[in-house]
Amino acid sequence: MNTNNVVWNNSVTPISIHFDDVYFNTDDAIAETTYVFIDGNHLSERFIAHTKSTFTIGETGFGSGLNFLIAWHYFLQFKQQHPNHVLKHLQFFSIEKYPLSLTELTTIHRAIIQEVNLANLAQILQNNWPCAHYQNEQVTLNVYFADIMLFSAHLKQSNTLIDAWFFDGFSPTKNPEMWSAPLFHSLYAQTAKSGTFATFTAASYARRNLLSAGFEVYKHKGYGKKREMLIGYKKPQSVEC
């Protein structure tokens, strides 16, 4: 595995050497991830309203695994509050072309994770890294170490439909393939009925391609100083008589 994927800007912010873009701002990465992906997909409410035993999240770009860890953390909180709920298991599918080394992963986690329960989950991830597959009673993680354009084929092979998408590639200007029309068309096909998405970007390139794939797309207030982000859902298919 490549042991040089990250450089640290002023020893504070992790930057990808492949895309010259930040993974996130270490000052408020957890709050931003929660706002964009957990709140943007209304996961707390959707867990409660879910009528199946498994809820499935898909993510474009695993990175440090922070999105997964926070989703896992929120799911465990949900289970603690609703122990008899029909929803019992969280599935998380992600893809990563340039996986971080264990040292890089651990360094990023230590820099941003202070909350004890979240740190414990991060330790489990570190202990199993690089984990193409991890599973326990509450959660299943599958990470495909491959090009993003192979993601839908992997999901199709797993017979998987996604309830909520975390679209989290690097900036569309730095990594346009992860926001392309062909990608979103293929991922739309692997989205469950009324499945949702959230993403930090509001770039017209991404918005246009999400719309062309068939998603209903809305602009939403961005996190912090960021003016806008995008959220949306899979539109119901019209029935022709």
UniProtKB/TrEMBL annotation:
<dbReference type="InterPro" id="IPR008471">
    <property type="entry name" value="MnmC-like_methylTransf"/>
</dbReference>
<dbReference type="Pfam" id="PF05430">
    <property type="entry name" value="Methyltransf_30"/>
</dbReference>
<protein>
    <submittedName>
        <fullName>tRNA 5-methylaminomethyl-2-thiouridine biosynthesis bifunctional protein</fullName>
    </submittedName>
</protein>
<feature type="domain" description="MnmC-like methyltransferase">
    <location>
        <begin position="124"/>
        <end position="235"/>
    </location>
</feature>
<dbReference type="GO" id="GO:0004808">
    <property type="term" value="F:tRNA (5-methylaminomethyl-2-thiouridylate)(34)-methyltransferase activity"/>
</dbReference>
<dbReference type="GO" id="GO:0016645">
    <property type="term" value="F:oxidoreductase activity, acting on the CH-NH group of donors"/>
</dbReference>
<dbReference type="InterPro" id="IPR047785">
    <property type="entry name" value="tRNA_MNMC2"/>
</dbReference>
<dbReference type="InterPro" id="IPR029063">
    <property type="entry name" value="SAM-dependent_MTases_sf"/>
</dbReference>
